[in-house]
User: Fold these one by one.
Assistant:
Number 1:
Amino acid sequence: MDSLKHKRIILGVTGSIAAIKSPAIARELNGLGASVYCVLTESAEQFVTRAEMAEATGEAVIASIFAQPGTAVRQQAGTPAPHKEQTWHVHLARSADAMLIAPCSASAIGMLRAGIYDNAVLLAAASLPKGTPLVLAPAMDEDMWLQPAVQENLAWLKSHGVLVIEPVVGALASGLTGMGRMPEPKEIVREFQDVMARSPRLPREGRETLPLQNMRVLITGGPTYEPIDAVRFIGNRSSGKMGAALARQAKKMGAEVTLVLGPAIPFPLLETEGVTVVSVETAEEMKQAVLKELPRVDIVIMSAAVADFMPEAQADKKLKKRDIADQFGRATLRLKRTPDILAAIGRLKRAGQIVVGFALEKGKGSEQYALGKMKEKKLDMIVLNDIAEEGAGFGYDTNKITIFTNDGNRESLPLMSKEACATVILQTVATRISRERSVESGELQFHHTKAKP
Ligand code: CTP
């Protein structure tokens, strides 16, 4: 692997006990031919010293916003300083090929999201030119990791092109075992290469600014109503909020968006935000609208709760009780299957189109069921909606999802707003597309497919 040969990497270290692993990360990067420039926060210095980082990198270490030449602990003879006084962060950031913050604390994540850059690491990150990858390796205790603020901040950062090396389950500094442990240095560096290769950010020349720029996205949302007669129907409680959130976020990420929406609650602002809304009522109408758009789109996301059955016959007037009840006062409604829109898309899709399905399941066995559905309907991705969770599913503003991709990845997310869920789903799609395009154009020399635990 020589993907890091001659690359200049800024290694930011923030205040987490996992900082004791940072010298080993620097050595791994060095070993692959990269030059490493370390920036420390004051809190990081509680766990690792400037001298250790200078020793590991062979370069001067910066540990203060107001870095002075004297700050350099060790400068190798003949190596030009990677920074100049006062504006060191600008020069360092502009000269770098990428920045890795490992470990990245919960506070650093929050400050990056809020645009508060009041330590040396954040200042360097803020000074990276657009197109220079920023990769975070969060490390913290499980309860901190599960904080909605941390999850939402990360989702927001991801939607703005920041790359994340996910923590793993393991022994934590607190003595507890759980999610939040930073992977081991070798794994961090392997993933760093991997996420850099998958980065939706383009090289500096000719880069696009948004992850879904120039893409056409078709989203379905809401329920379908299957008429029984002129006034009655079979429907479900889907509010359409997940579809609307996906449409809004896809638009913000630069896509041209069409939302095919069943009879949900109205979303009057969507059209003013630039989303084309096509209103439909039945599964058959939804199928027609979807198939019309299908040939021209790059991405299809079927979040609609399509009715699986419709009455075999529909009366065009209001049915009278006396006309349908038998002598015991019972009435029978015969149903037939609605068209399976997603299965039809799976059959018709062209190479390069990404199709995402949704599965609404409850409790045990739901993952196997979702995986089966992804295979059977030839999907690229399936989003499992766990309705066993309080606050998830129909009508709520929050959701609890797990994303499975057909290359074996699995990402389980905590309860988050539907907007944040939409961002992560779309970011996963954008990453997938950019990776496929890089492979096609021969840009990638390697890539790993990672099965997450
Ligand atoms: N879907 C569809 N057309 C239908 C029914 C569902 O395109 N007629 C889509 C939904 O939009 C969703 C996925 O298929 O993306 C859900 O799959 P489905 O097999 O319908 O799930 P369930 O209805 O939960 O299936 P089951 O009753 O078998 O559990």
Number 2:
Amino acid sequence: MKELTNINILAIESSCDETAAAVVCNGREVLSNVISSQIALHTLYGGVVPEIASRKHIEKINQVIEEALSEAGMTLDDIDAIGVTYGPGLVGALLVGVAEAKAIAYAKKKPLVGVHHIEGHISANYIEHPDLEPPFICLVASGGHTHLVCVKDYGQYEILGRTRDDAAGEAFDKVARAIGLGYPGGPKIDKVSKEGNPEAISFPHAHMEDAPFDFSFSGVKSAVLNYINGCQMKGESYSQADIAASFQKAVVDVLVEHSMKAVEMYGMNRFAIAGGVASNSALRAAMVAACEKQGVKFYSPSPILCTDNAAMIGAAAYYEYLAGTRHGLDLNAVPNLKLGER
Ligand code: KG4
Ligand code: ZN
């Protein structure tokens, strides 16, 4: 007989340009984690083209789910619930995952648990850190969001700060394009920065007087563009690696400063990072050092669990499932879903 304590969730993620499915047991044990990335396709256009993303999700989703089940050695009959990202994200992309999840839930009479994408990113930390439990502070930095969140309990979040303009990942992507690195910018800046001098150029660090935990990255992005224009007008050459490293340092400095301020102010002894930008090597190193200095335990998912994946959705769905969250077959994609909304 199946143990009552084992809850296997089939999770689906399709909010942007990754079609992903995973099977996660009890929120923390990943039995499979299949990701079909569309990066190569969108690289041609210098960024994600929503219409292409939706079409590709439709093409891939069944195959990705079949692979996730087969890698886990399971069929749909072994699954206890279906978890799916229903927002925020690209509406057409989200709809593919939501429709698929609803179809499976209906056909196999399984509970349906809609998950907030950011809750998924935060929950990626539970997978490899069995000792991590709320409360803790989490910095979520992705292509669409930069949030400093107090995770009060499973599924209970207080947003302490957010970006006023560009998300951190968006700034990485825009700066990469400006210095000729192309898409996706984050990993390319990360790599080329290793050959550059982070002290070469002093780019601005934005702080908001009235909101110490808010972020703004449009200023540093404009400063990079102005720097390049200035060099071009003077007929001077510039170092791509120095710009990348200096820009990266400016962003990392602010992310670390605000995060540590929050940890201190809220008296937390645990701090986690999440989201695509959390895979940045300079950010990870700086956070490790800052947490050590502040006597705070630092948590981060492996890079593959930082960028979009369905294992993190399975982790989040498990805690939502335990809390009694069940969605009906009228679940819709909500492109601007707020964290904590149900
Ligand atoms: O979390 P994610 O996969 O998707 C969203 O939910 O947005 O984040 C993607 C973002 C992109 O902007 C990408 O450039 C950035 O994360 N990113 C990185 C790195 N890897 C991905 N940024 C900095 N350094 C990296 N190594
Ligand atoms: Zn994401």
